[in-house]
Queue: 3 jobs
Job 1
Amino acid sequence: MQTLQPPGWTRPKGYANGVIASGRMLFVAGQVGWDADEVFRSADLVDQIRQALANVLTILAAGEAGPQHIVRMTWYLGDAAEYNARLGEIGAVYRALVGNHYPAMSAVQVAGFVEAGAKVEIEVTAVLPDD
């Protein structure tokens, strides 16, 4: 896996502009901040992000992958202003779970979620080395 940084561009904080990777692809469906029983244990955005990332990592582990294999991550947010206001907390949770691995990322505000009570949904593409 190789991170792309175009010459002269300011280095992004918390994500990569582009990634080149080859190998077996693993696609993780959008994960919301509920637990394995599909119960939201908190209505707090940061708590839901923590749980959604934990869900992503659990699915990656089921495919014998880890956070280092993530090449693309998309965050769907119910409230971009709350996300931006809490970036410090969110960054700390991200680093605690994912580490200092920053794939190509997008974050978008959406009008709503299918799952009532969701504040975030995170989907991931990972690439594992060929066997």
Job 2
Amino acid sequence: MRDTFQPTVYLLASHRQGTLYVGVTSDLLRRLHQHREGLIDGFTKDYGVHRLVWFEQHGTMEHAITREKRIKKWNRAWKIALIEAANPDWRDLAVDWGFDPLSSHRIVRG
């Protein structure tokens, strides 16, 4: 990753083949911290979607937002194919930047 302040589209998962979330940010490391610590209310917090499984950096925020909107319209199979092309084991990529590994158990919302 060249710079934490680079426009980035990212996919989070609750676990392998689990619930997916598509997002966009100008600071991926800060956003990952927010997701993992439950600082962002909403979908990712409610469903335990915190595992970074794919990301793509862009030259401008406009390009990143356009890409995010396109991916959000994709069906689930296409999103899974995108993840598995780059990360077939659904490894938590955030660990590479010093984040603690997440537990591998499935989150069940009750």
Job 3
Amino acid sequence: MGNEAFPVPDALAPDTDLGGGYSLRPVTNAEAWAVADRLEGEAYQSVSFDWQADAPFATPDGKRHAWLILHGGEVAGWQISRQWDARTAYMINTALLPQHRGKGVYSRLLPIVLDVLKAEGYTLVRSHHHATNNAVLIPKLRAGFRLQGMEIDHHGMLAVLIYSFDPVYRDYMDVRCGLKRAEGEVARRLGMNAAELTPSALDGSSPA
């Protein structure tokens, strides 16, 4: 069913201009999920397991954050986040309807959502995406997210992405992935001494 059949919820705060006629509207979690539930058939072409029953327990308590993406007075998509753990926000559900993709909206949306989550006090932002969903993976990697794992669940094969507001932890993730050598504050927190940081110690070679 199309999105023209129901009213757009009122904003909890002023809309943010995303450019190109798009705007981001903060709404309640319940309002965002009501829209997502109604439009998910248009937004997603992927296949997830059909449980054919409601979950037995409520989602764990924690902060909620939700926005609608608007264009021409109608819903073009949404972004829903919630608290994952004591230091992490989880971008649980983001979607753009097909006619609004390929316009750079997602790339313009990301820094705004990240700024809100940072202001809330989170240290990390986590998300899961289909491993072939380049339309989301590439903008997120360009925005500074790091690939931190792969998993399979009822949605299929998923890439786990993490964004850190702590620059030391960002460097730490790169060190742990083998992208760079430990140095500076990362090396100090790993308990590495100067001898361990020499090129010969790192690559296994012997001094001449």
